[in-house]
Amino acid sequence: MNQGSDFVTQQEPTPAFQDQGSRIIPPKKVLRRFVDTKIPKLTVSLPLSLIPQKPEKKPIDYVLIRLASMDFPGKAHVEEYLRHQYRRNFKLSTMRSTLAGCELFLNFVKDQGKVELQQITRQDLEGFVEQEIDRGLAITTVKTRLCAVYAFLRFLHERDIVRAALLVKRIKLRLPAPLPKAINPDDVRTLLSVLDDVRDRAMILVLLRTGMRIGELLSTCIDDVNLPERKIAIWEAEKNSVGRVVCISDDAAIALEAWFRKRDPDKVFLFYGMGRSSLTYQGARALFVRYIKKAGLTHKGYTLHCLRHTFASEALNAGMPLEAVQVLLGHSNAEVTRRYARLTDKTREREYFKAMEIIQRGEIDGDYRLDS
Fold first, then answer.
1. In terms of DSSP H, where are the helices of the chain?
2. What are the pLDDT digits (tens) for 344-365?
3. Is the CB of residue 38 less than 8 Å from the CB of residue 57?
4. Distance (Å, rounded) from C-alpha 210 to C-alpha 329?
5. In the chain, which end has fewer C-beta atoms inside a 10 angstrom radius, N or C?
6. Which pTM value belongs to this model?
7. How far apart are CA 352 and CA 296, in angstroms?
8. Radius of gyration of the chain (CA)
9. Domains of the chain with bracketed CATH
10. With contact defined as beta carbons under 8 Å apart, do 261 and 240 qualify?
11. The pLDDT of residue 17 is above 70
């Protein structure tokens, strides 16, 4: 190849003998030119069946990856317990809560100088509770972690790893019984008046009129909604995994119809974010906070879950039986629903004011004395 030339003459290698009358085919001389070019990117469309897919992670994989970075006594037993929960179809959130509780407790045991699970005593449990309370955690959070620890200890006892004495006379924490916080009727009207987006209005009205948990609504698919019959099927409740059907009010149905006309029909979930296939809890919370601020209600401390409380309170005030409200809310325990009755008992309120009128008119006769 000559200097300064972009041409080169190449002689191809001599091929083997070919069966053409025992004739040798002479090599060809080929003239090639070397040119610097930019090769454009090539996009090839392949069917999904031919594209190698990453193996989908199982729920247990997420907690085991987290567990692998930890160091505390009984780590192998915790892994065994988590796998036991997975085989029993526990939710990922439950397994994560279990891991968090076990990690905190076993690290506390480690700080006490103990390296074997057989060394755990009731005093360790009491000390762990005191530590969590001293950290300023809510008593409900402490109780959740203590329950996770007790469940783990019961698992260990069934395998003869810890003594039964740990499970006798379990530590019981007294929990406050606050009334559920519902949104004031005037504030509800103010909130609804500032909903200027079709999707957001439909989402907030569905939460307000059905009592669904936000997690249940965000996981609702379009096929779960039966608008002609005004029903939404919740195949698996967020907390107790029990399915139920909720009803859709007229105003919520109108809002959903408007959203159906605008939404992408190819999306699987009922509600989704821009450029996404679904809507996250953080996204739903952010839009609710934005509307609360727009309505001038920030100082009231309302949250997304208050929409569920509002549904129950208004339903009871309107005369719906407690048992019906319990089913619609998906409560497995009637006592949980009864909290709303304490908040909305109009009968008791009427009887109180009726009695006060009599008292204020001075129509109470007789002396107050002990009966002999």
1. 59-68, 75-87, 92-111, 122-134, 139-158, 185-193, 198-210, 214-218, 250-262, 281-294, 305-317, 322-329, 334-344, 346-360
2. 666 677 778 888 888 888 777 6
3. no
4. 8
5. C
6. 0.65
7. 33
8. 34
9. 59-167 (1.10.150), 185-350 (1.10.443.10)
10. no
11. no
